[in-house]
Amino acid sequence: MERMPRLYVEVEKGRCSAGKKAREDCVIIQENVEVWLKKGDEVPEFIEQDGAEFLVKEVYDRFYQYVDGSTGKMLTDAIIVLPDGRTRIYLKKGDELLLLPVEGYTKTIIANVGNRVRRGDAFAAVTTKKGEVHYLKPPKTGTVVFIDEITQRPHYVYYILPEE
Hints:
Number of domains: 2
Structural class: mainly beta
Number of helices: 1
Number of strands: 15
Order of helices and strands: EHEEEEEEEEEEEEEE
Distance between the termini: 34 Å
Helix content: under 10%
Strand order of the largest sheet: 5-4-6-1-7-8
Largest sheet: 6 strands, antiparallel
Shape: elongated
Strand content: 35-45%
Radius of gyration: 18 Å
CATH architecture of the largest domain: Beta Barrel
CATH topology of the largest domain: Lipocalin
Protein backbone atom coordinates (compact mmCIF):
# COMPACT_ATOMS: atom_id res chain seq x y z
CA MET A 1 0.00 0.00 0.00
CA GLU A 2 1.52 3.29 -1.10
CA ARG A 3 0.87 6.19 1.26
CA MET A 4 0.91 9.84 0.27
CA PRO A 5 3.46 12.31 1.57
CA ARG A 6 2.15 14.87 4.05
CA LEU A 7 2.41 18.59 3.36
CA TYR A 8 2.60 21.37 5.95
CA VAL A 9 2.50 25.03 4.86
CA GLU A 10 3.12 28.28 6.72
CA VAL A 11 0.09 30.15 8.06
CA GLU A 12 -0.64 32.91 10.57
CA LYS A 13 -0.43 31.76 14.20
CA GLY A 14 -4.16 31.91 14.94
CA ARG A 15 -4.94 29.21 12.39
CA CYS A 16 -2.73 26.62 14.11
CA SER A 17 -3.71 27.11 17.73
CA ALA A 18 -6.48 28.63 19.76
CA GLY A 19 -4.84 29.57 23.05
CA LYS A 20 -3.26 26.40 24.39
CA LYS A 21 -4.85 23.85 22.00
CA ALA A 22 -4.02 22.99 18.39
CA ARG A 23 -6.95 23.71 16.05
CA GLU A 24 -5.64 21.25 13.46
CA ASP A 25 -2.56 19.11 12.77
CA CYS A 26 0.35 21.53 12.68
CA VAL A 27 4.03 22.20 13.30
CA ILE A 28 5.35 25.06 15.41
CA ILE A 29 8.96 26.06 14.79
CA GLN A 30 10.72 28.30 17.27
CA GLU A 31 14.42 28.85 16.57
CA ASN A 32 15.84 25.29 16.43
CA VAL A 33 12.86 23.58 18.14
CA GLU A 34 10.04 21.86 16.24
CA VAL A 35 6.80 20.85 17.94
CA TRP A 36 4.52 18.52 15.94
CA LEU A 37 0.92 18.67 17.16
CA LYS A 38 -2.27 16.77 16.33
CA LYS A 39 -5.64 18.51 16.48
CA GLY A 40 -6.55 19.01 20.14
CA ASP A 41 -2.99 18.62 21.50
CA GLU A 42 -1.81 21.20 24.00
CA VAL A 43 0.80 23.73 22.91
CA PRO A 44 3.84 23.42 25.22
CA GLU A 45 4.37 26.31 27.62
CA PHE A 46 7.92 26.98 26.41
CA ILE A 47 6.61 28.04 22.99
CA GLU A 48 6.52 31.82 22.60
CA GLN A 49 3.85 32.16 19.94
CA ASP A 50 4.92 35.67 18.92
CA GLY A 51 8.36 34.51 17.73
CA ALA A 52 7.36 31.15 16.28
CA GLU A 53 6.51 29.98 12.77
CA PHE A 54 3.32 27.97 12.24
CA LEU A 55 2.70 25.40 9.52
CA VAL A 56 -0.57 23.49 9.14
CA LYS A 57 -1.30 20.23 7.39
CA GLU A 58 -2.54 20.73 3.84
CA VAL A 59 -3.71 18.32 1.14
CA TYR A 60 -0.49 17.16 -0.54
CA ASP A 61 -2.06 17.29 -4.02
CA ARG A 62 -2.37 21.08 -3.60
CA PHE A 63 1.40 21.55 -3.41
CA TYR A 64 1.45 23.28 -6.83
CA GLN A 65 -0.61 26.14 -5.32
CA TYR A 66 2.40 27.11 -3.19
CA VAL A 67 4.78 27.40 -6.15
CA ASP A 68 4.87 30.24 -8.67
CA GLY A 69 4.23 28.41 -11.94
CA SER A 70 6.24 30.84 -14.06
CA THR A 71 9.36 31.21 -11.89
CA GLY A 72 9.32 27.93 -9.95
CA LYS A 73 9.80 29.83 -6.66
CA MET A 74 8.18 28.71 -3.43
CA LEU A 75 5.51 31.20 -2.32
CA THR A 76 5.69 30.12 1.36
CA ASP A 77 7.67 27.90 3.72
CA ALA A 78 6.65 24.25 3.58
CA ILE A 79 7.60 20.83 4.93
CA ILE A 80 6.99 17.58 3.06
CA VAL A 81 6.98 14.44 5.21
CA LEU A 82 7.60 11.34 3.09
CA PRO A 83 5.46 8.21 3.66
CA ASP A 84 8.17 6.58 5.79
CA GLY A 85 7.32 9.24 8.41
CA ARG A 86 10.98 9.99 9.15
CA THR A 87 12.22 11.77 6.03
CA ARG A 88 11.37 15.45 5.76
CA ILE A 89 12.04 17.95 3.00
CA TYR A 90 12.17 21.57 4.14
CA LEU A 91 11.32 24.25 1.58
CA LYS A 92 11.74 27.96 2.23
CA LYS A 93 9.88 30.84 0.65
CA GLY A 94 11.87 31.88 -2.43
CA ASP A 95 13.51 28.45 -3.01
CA GLU A 96 13.64 27.86 -6.76
CA LEU A 97 12.37 24.51 -7.96
CA LEU A 98 12.96 23.00 -11.39
CA LEU A 99 9.59 22.47 -13.11
CA LEU A 100 10.17 19.79 -15.73
CA PRO A 101 7.27 18.71 -17.98
CA VAL A 102 6.85 15.11 -19.12
CA GLU A 103 4.80 14.94 -22.32
CA GLY A 104 4.41 12.13 -24.80
CA TYR A 105 2.16 9.40 -26.11
CA THR A 106 3.06 7.08 -23.24
CA LYS A 107 4.75 8.29 -20.06
CA THR A 108 6.71 6.23 -17.56
CA ILE A 109 7.62 7.62 -14.16
CA ILE A 110 11.10 6.48 -13.09
CA ALA A 111 11.84 8.72 -10.09
CA ASN A 112 9.22 9.19 -7.41
CA VAL A 113 8.72 11.82 -4.69
CA GLY A 114 11.67 11.84 -2.32
CA ASN A 115 14.07 10.33 -4.86
CA ARG A 116 17.35 12.11 -5.54
CA VAL A 117 18.01 12.43 -9.26
CA ARG A 118 21.46 13.24 -10.55
CA ARG A 119 22.16 15.38 -13.56
CA GLY A 120 22.23 12.99 -16.50
CA ASP A 121 20.11 10.28 -14.82
CA ALA A 122 16.67 9.62 -16.26
CA PHE A 123 13.72 10.65 -14.07
CA ALA A 124 11.02 9.74 -16.63
CA ALA A 125 10.62 8.18 -20.06
CA VAL A 126 8.23 9.01 -22.88
CA THR A 127 7.34 6.84 -25.83
CA THR A 128 6.30 8.48 -29.08
CA LYS A 129 3.51 7.20 -31.34
CA LYS A 130 6.26 5.73 -33.53
CA GLY A 131 7.49 3.69 -30.58
CA GLU A 132 10.67 5.67 -29.92
CA VAL A 133 11.62 5.90 -26.23
CA HIS A 134 13.14 9.15 -24.94
CA TYR A 135 14.57 9.44 -21.45
CA LEU A 136 14.19 12.78 -19.68
CA LYS A 137 17.12 13.94 -17.57
CA PRO A 138 17.27 16.92 -15.20
CA PRO A 139 19.68 19.78 -15.91
CA LYS A 140 20.79 19.72 -12.24
CA THR A 141 21.03 17.19 -9.43
CA GLY A 142 18.12 17.47 -7.00
CA THR A 143 15.30 15.83 -5.06
CA VAL A 144 11.82 15.19 -6.46
CA VAL A 145 9.34 16.98 -4.16
CA PHE A 146 6.12 16.71 -6.20
CA ILE A 147 4.78 15.19 -9.39
CA ASP A 148 1.79 17.07 -10.76
CA GLU A 149 -0.55 15.13 -12.99
CA ILE A 150 -2.08 17.75 -15.25
CA THR A 151 -5.70 16.92 -16.00
CA GLN A 152 -6.24 19.24 -18.98
CA ARG A 153 -3.55 17.45 -20.99
CA PRO A 154 -2.12 13.97 -20.57
CA HIS A 155 1.22 14.84 -18.99
CA TYR A 156 3.09 15.32 -15.73
CA VAL A 157 5.22 18.11 -14.31
CA TYR A 158 8.09 17.15 -12.00
CA TYR A 159 8.97 19.61 -9.22
CA ILE A 160 12.62 19.10 -8.30
CA LEU A 161 14.50 20.93 -5.53
CA PRO A 162 18.01 21.39 -6.96
CA GLU A 163 21.10 20.99 -4.82
CA GLU A 164 23.39 23.97 -4.41
